Model the fold of this input.
Amino acid sequence: MGVYTRTGDEGETSVIGGRVRKDDDRVEAYGTIDELNSFVGQALSFAEEEVLEDLREQLAEIQQELFDCGSDLAFVKLSDKKYKVKEEMVLRLEQWIDHCEEENPKVERFIIPGGSRLSSALHVCRTVCRRAERRTVTLGSHTEINPAVRRYLNRLSDYFFVAARTANVRLGVADVEYVRSKKVFGRKE
Done:
């Protein structure tokens, strides 16, 4: 089987249940999720230390689930009984976030992406995830989608933020704070 098919040479691509333009909102959404998955793979390659084993396992699971997200969005019409992304996946992300947050110092200022290589890579994942979420919201504004995908992506970007901070904590690297700001978090008004 060849890698090239030539079927997309005129600017269209196949989705499950039809063909659409390559710049269709559906393709933009699942294409951005695919891009995110590549960045998660890169981040995973930076998580070599033993103290990061649970994060490694979580990132590997997230890669599988991002394929599920893309699959759910690739269907032109899909019964909700066939959706792969379920609410339990969102709840599990929340558990992972809560567990990471227990290790992290309180946030007082905005955090600038940086620190360890893994933390930096997870911040890239966070920003690409936010774009994937925006693309999914756009798609959902005019066609029916699995709403759990949107919730999953929203929670996943939060996960990447806290996991980036946890990676820094475990590797003994300080978060990079936005120093031109007053302390804006944790204040009582």
About this structure: The first strand starts at residue 12 and ends at 15.
